[in-house]
Amino acid sequence: MKKLILIGRSESGKTTLMQALRGEEIHYAKTQYVYNGDVLIDTPGEYIQTKHLGGALAVYSYEADVVGLLVSATEPFSLFGPNIVPMANREVIGIVTKIDSPDANIPLADRWLKLAGCEKIFHVDSTHSVGISDILDYLHNN
Ligand SMILES: Nc1nc2c(ncn2[C@@H]2O[C@H](COP(=O)(O)OP(=O)(O)O)[C@@H](O)[C@H]2O)c(=O)[nH]1
Ligand SMILES: [Mg+2]
Question: 41, 44, 95, 132: most buried by Cβ count inside 10 Å?
Answer without folding.
Answer: 95
